[in-house]
Amino acid sequence: MPPRTEPNPIASVWAREQRSPDQPALSRDAIVREAIAMLDADGIEALSMRKLGARLNAGATSLYRHVATKDELMELAVDEVAAEIHVPDADASDWRAAVTEAAASFRTTALRHRWLSSVLGQAGLAYLGPNLMSFSERLAALFTAVGFPEPSGAIDAVLSYTIGMSTTEAAWLTTVARSGESEGEFIARLMPAAQQAAAGHAHLAGSYAESAATTTDPVALRDGKFAYGLEVVLDGLSLRLTR
Amino acid sequence: MPPRTEPNPIASVWAREQRSPDQPALSRDAIVREAIAMLDADGIEALSMRKLGARLNAGATSLYRHVATKDELMELAVDEVAAEIHVPDADASDWRAAVTEAAASFRTTALRHRWLSSVLGQAGLAYLGPNLMSFSERLAALFTAVGFPEPSGAIDAVLSYTIGMSTTEAAWLTTVARSGESEGEFIARLMPAAQQAAAGHAHLAGSYAESAATTTDPVALRDGKFAYGLEVVLDGLSLRLTR
DNA sequence: TCCATCATGCGTACAGTGTTCGCATCGAAG
DNA sequence: CTTCGATGCGAACACTGTACGCATGATGGA
Prior knowledge:
Chain A is an all-alpha fold. Chain A contains 11 helices and no strands. In chain A, 67% of the residues lie in helices and 0% in strands.
């Protein structure tokens, strides 16, 4: 093995700097973008400043010229990803469909970037990034336009439910992904241990046996579960609306 | 400073512990207990195997005789803490009060051990520890005794809401605690930045201004917020019950 | 009583982490 | 052409989780 792997040993000789054509020259945006790619691909504990620097053909400590600390980088990544959450415009006539779409969009992004819930669970929502701010703003606009007596209470209710379900799902999918198996295979392999652990717990054993009998696609099962709970929350909210 | 602070020095002496009088002899239970104490005191990133070993008057690597890995230790800590969640017996006549008590108990423990949400957010609920199992069992017993058509859907709804709200609160309180200020002081210091970040977002600016005008105790505010959302969920559930 | 066995503690070491510091380089401004 | 400020980076520091092998002390059989 050679003593070191030199990123570009020849290029710098004859073409003094090659940053323009292929490499985007280590900007803050490029760093955040690549960090998100690594987080999506290999999970949250696979991201280190050294590996991220290597992926950008840069030294590990060069990143600190553009980002103060790793926590700040995660903050930027969270806000970047928050732009993917779509909240319909406030004037939507069908408020249930609008809120459902917003919640589903949140869940979709949380499952696409499974590290999101981990970061939010550790650092909370006191981030104040522009995309998170406009997400909150659009939610507030939607709920006040609907005419809820306590818009912030209604927002917190549906958002808490959505965060809780998405977090649980994301953690589950992370565990599944770490096993290298498909979701169905992992469930099948986990079932004996779960059944044994449920020995002496009548209701748990019953529900385990029942879920083992049904052969539904686990993705559809999770989708249905999320939709059901969301309907429950929306029903409770609609009671507060018509009065 | 004495070498260790013993939580209940008297009861364990004459009642059941048979170890040597001075050193608790580094058992798995002692390790988990001390780990929880450190997590509660200084947060999740303050716990390292070396510090934990030092607190137990033991070398860093001695712990690995009783615990396979740090992740397993966290798993044990989560299950240990799960025993503090109280779920009323299934025969409670007032199901709303029973579910409310269970949810409140979950929230209380999640706020008492603010690292819990972080761990659950990263590892999920696929833990199968005995205390978590009996927690699930008691919830299942309660909801089926109430007579819900889909007990697991109802459980997931209220549990997701509770987890989401508790996680958000715990992360917020962690941020507050890290500042060294009281919650009110921290809010006061954060307000200018929040207001500035809300510039151009009409609804957010309005709600910020409104919350700045009210001088309510932040603890009471959070309690009310949680209760309101829980009522929403329970209302939605009761619609599914009476039919 | 003596010896073998075995569980437990721990010192050392390894590979990795986030981050600081000072030095080199290089494009642009004066 | 010279200066200067921004940028990249190698080395280093204080940590982390954990594997390995050695010491030690208790236990139980001969």
